[in-house]
Write a structure and sequence with these properties.
Strand content: 5-15%
Radius of gyration: 45 Å
Strand order of the largest sheet: 3-4-2-5-1-6-7-8
Distance between the termini: 16 Å
């Protein structure tokens, strides 16, 4: 054991208190009240004596053991047939005997006993007590202990509740433990030897390399049967290993180990929280990738739809141009003009009216068919995008559980954000109105579906919204009724080439409007729907940004604390 002077221990204790302050600050920022209370209480106990915590089942003889250990005629801890220790009793040195009630679960008892100048003793409720909260209270006191004295009934040291509590002490806090078999006077030496070996076997199996076991009898000690009681061996161990100037060093070492235990817990939880953040960030990128892929696919479909419409448009307009070329030839015009003079059928006016209606009918029927089919494909892809996002949300990976010792609140908050997100996206997908587009829908009922006039796609928003819900509205009305105006003014003196040129100009404008109203309009519409879905992720995205900054900050503080502890 390394020996330190009092000055060195004082300086190291001062450094330890600074580290405790940093750790309490971190616990406060994390929002873990239990950890913060543990560290603050530890800081308050830095300068208290080396602390024995006496644990064991009800009626194991703990109170009698303490009275015998203190070698006093006074009954420090009351002994009675029924369980008397209904609170934690901290037994401390004081020049004047007194009892101080700290809270309903803790009282301090001061006695003028020499050994209490170096050690403090904490008597706890039984590990199997039926009184509510007693084991929980005892567990909370363990982090502040310097030595755990585990008291068993010598006649039955195998009770499950005792060894389960030992698992907590050893696995959770790695406390120094000694075992006491109390009331050894109640069994024959042979049976006592068997039980000593049984405790040793249990302790070794649970990770204690060289368990220290002291069979004692408080009754024999108090009745002055010193040679038989077994307390002389226990006191010798305490004198050689704890009292006699070593307690201060051991307490410092225990405090450092306690802080290391807490920081290790923090490391584990922060690591889990970081893994959750990485998984959530990857999950969010997958959502974006799904939406981007479907947006690209939709724009490709829109490109194909536009090309198909223009191709159909070109075929129909080429046919009509040929009709005009032939019908406006000089011979045809003269013939139809002649017929019109005599009121015969096949006159110029009837021919022009027929051409206008035929042109409108072909454009309307053929373009409508292709337009509806293309819009259904676009609508289905938009719906698939939303469904894939909705489905992806149902299978997000949960690594940080709401049972986490340190970050349970954060896990719960994340879960609520995720559940809200799932609910919002689900509601969005089931609400047809979300697929309407104000710009496309604006003044729909006031504008005739006239492609040449630039309003042929005015009801695309209606078609898309309806297609998402499994129905397709029809596109009705004329498509190029305004082209008829071109023919109404034709007279014998109009030059054919001028008419054809004017026709071509109108047709080109029609193509441009197809690109603007179909390609650009639907692409913008798709992007707006994508953005509407994306808006549901605002809270989740804010959570990720905050989480990234928080984790960086926590790791910086943890690294500082761990470095200082290792140096100490």
């Amino acid at each position: 054991m390394k020996a330190y002077t009092d000055d060195v221990i004082i300086k190291k204790t001062e450094v330890l208190q600074i580290i405790m302050g940093d750790l309490a600050l971190l616990a406060g920022e994390i929002g873990n009240d239990n950890m913060m209370d543990t560290v603050k209480e530890l800081a308050n106990r830095v300068e208290t004596p080396f602390t024995f915590v006496i644990v064991g089942e009800v009626k194991a003889g703990k109170s009698s053991f303490i009275n015998a250990l203190l070698q006093t005629d006074k009954e420090i801890c009351k002994v009675a047939p029924s369980p008397m220790t209904d609170t934690i009793q901290q037994i401390l040195y004081g020049p004047v005997e007194k009892t101080e009630i700290v809270n309903p679960y803790l009282k301090k008892i001061y006695h003028n006993i020499e050994i209490l100048k170096e050690i403090a003793i904490v008597d706890t409720p039984g590990t199997n007590t039926i009184v509510e909260h007693h084991q929980e209270i005892t567990e909370r006191f363990i982090p502040y202990s310097d030595l755990i004295v585990f008291v068993f009934e010598a006649k039955n040291p195998y009770r499950q509740s005792s060894w389960e509590f030992f698992d907590f002490i050893h696995a959770e806090w790695r406390r120094k433990v000694i075992f006491v078999l109390q009331q050894k006077d109640l069994l024959p030496e042979e049976d006592l030897s068997v039980n000593i070996q049984g405790v040793r076997k249990h302790a070794i199996e649970k990770g204690i390399e060289n368990p220290l076991i002291f069979p004692v009898s408080a009754k024999q000690e108090l009745e002055k049967e010193i040679q038989l009681s077994g307390f002389d061996l226990l006191r010798k161990y305490l004198q050689e290993n704890i009292t006699g100037g070593r307690a201060a060093f051991l307490k410092l070492e225990n405090n450092i180990n306690t802080l290391l235990t807490i920081t290790n817990k923090l490391d584990n939880s922060i690591d889990i929280r970081k893994k959750q953040f990485v998984a959530d960030k990857a999950f969010r990128e997958e959502i974006r990738e799904i939406m981007n892929q479907h947006e690209s696919k939709t724009k490709y479909q829109i490109e194909l739809l536009t090309e198909n419409l223009i191709s159909t448009y070109n075929i129909i307009t080429d046919e009509k141009r040929n009709d005009l070329n032939e019908g406006l030839s000089l011979g045809s015009v003269i013939k139809r003009t002649f017929n019109s003079l005599f009121g015969s059928s096949g006159n110029l006016k009837e021919w022009l009216t027929h051409q206008s209606k035929d042109f409108e009918s072909k454009l309307n029927s053929r373009l409508k068919e292709r337009l509806q089919g293309g819009i259904i494909d676009v609508a289905e892809n938009i719906q698939t995008m939303g469904k894939m996002v909705d489905n992806k949300l149902k299978y997000s990976e949960t690594i940080l559980k709401n049972s986490d010792e340190i970050f349970a609140d954060i896990a719960e908050k994340r879960l609520h954000v995720l559940l809200d997100l799932q609910q919002n996206v689900g509601q969005f997908m089931n609400t047809a109105e979300n697929f309407y587009d104000e710009k496309i829908m604006r003044d729909t009922n006031k504008i005739a579906p006239n492609l040449a006039a630039g309003s042929g796609i005015a009801i695309v928003g209606v078609v898309l919204a309806a297609a998402v819900n499994g129905a397709v509205f029809d596109i009705t009305g004329g498509v190029l009724t305004a082209v008829g105006v071109l023919f109404a003014g034709i007279t014998l003196g109009i030059n054919k080439s001028k008419i054809i040129r004017k026709f071509d100009e109108e047709i080109e404008r029609g193509k441009e409007r197809i690109v603007v109203e179909i390609k650009e309009g639907l692409s913008l519409y798709t992007e707006r729907i994508k953005n509407k879905i994306d808006l549901n992720f605002i809270d989740f995205d804010q959570l990720l940004v905050k989480e990234e900054n928080t984790l960086i900050h926590f790791e910086e503080m943890q690294n500082k604390i761990r470095k200082n502890l290792q140096e100490l």
